[in-house]
Amino acid sequence: MKExxxxxxxxxxPVPERxxxxxxxxxxxxxxxxxQSIVKKTTESLKWLHQTDxxxxxxxxxxxxxxxxxxxxxLSKGDKVICGENGKFGERWVKxxxxxxLNVETVTAxxxxxxxxxQFKKLLDNDEDIRAVILTHSETSTGVINNLKEIASYxxxxxxxxxxxxxxxxIGACNVPMDEWGIDVIASGSQKGYxxxxxxxxxxxxxxxxxxxxxxxxxxxxxDLKAYKKTADKDSxxxxxxxxxxxxxxxxxxxxxxxxxxxxxNRHKKHMEATQRAIDSIGLKLFASPGFGSPSITSVLTDNIxxxxxxxxxxxxxxxxxxxxxxxxxxxIFRIGHLxxxxxxxxLTAIAAIEASLDQIGKLKSPLGTxxxxxxxxxxxx
Length: 382
Ligand SMILES: *Cc1c(COP(=O)(O)O)cnc(C)c1O
Hints:
Helix content: 40-55%
Order of helices and strands: EHHEHEHEHEEEHEHEEHHHHEEHEEHH
Radius of gyration: 21 Å
Number of helices: 14
Distance between the termini: 35 Å
Low-confidence stretches: none
Largest sheet: 7 strands, mixed
Number of strands: 14
Structural class: alpha/beta
Bound molecules: pyridoxal-5'-phosphate
């Protein structure tokens, strides 16, 4: 029954009915007072979500547009930067930085392991010329959460460097207090924790980032953030934005405010724990290092079972879409997205579907229902 597809991938994520209804309206003029009031409201709510007094700008484009904007607006050709790389999205940062002629040094960790903050500290302590530390907070490809707080604290002590963070699967899932942690640039995208379809991205810039932008000489036009800032100050956009996605954004942010930041973070944490323990209880392995699992996504190592066979069975039998492994992890891991509009029912259903599918392909090692029982115990806790 194809109409009832449940997305449990780390983006696009499920969209609430309230948000779908908000989308299905006639567009309005993007220079109208009605639209300006939406821009004003969503901008204020975005600052609330980022826990910042700095600017949060909305770009029509996917998350990568915000990542690219972060680089080209704050840096110059030949600038020395450190990129954290422990998965596909860390690799993307390196690619963007190199595409613009930056002098990239990488701090790497094995896929599945977190970046070591001390490696950043060492490089920063020994080089005054570093202009930026660039990293992914929640590395979606592996399900690892990096210690952004600690890494940003070292950048803060450096004379010139700013922190540029991809928080695409951490904003709206766990605590990312931009001002408190001193993160200078944060990129995120609509189809993840925001609970709206793909097409908008968000870039937060603090005073230090704007200061850096004064010196930046990389080419830019559509993603020139000064134009976005100038128009945002008048509750507008430099170009025609995706008007209907703004309707959706307004409604989704309203839902988030109704739930409250702490409730959102606690819900994701609980779903992460329930998923991790359930997976462990049915004899599958967690791919992320213990204590470094992302609140948005759990990667499951399937050892001698073909991960794609599990994923296919879950899709065919239950219309639940799980994510596969990327690159060398294809067939070795599958990933369960529990980001955004996800409730306890979704978690129990996903675990049950995985157990049932393993049973069907003759690979279930635990008594049927073990994973559901384990997840239930976590979900029932206060
Ligand atoms: C989804 C995602 C992105 C953005 O990808 P787009 O396809 O451009 O929206 C960036 N970083 C991470 C960690 C992601 O999960």
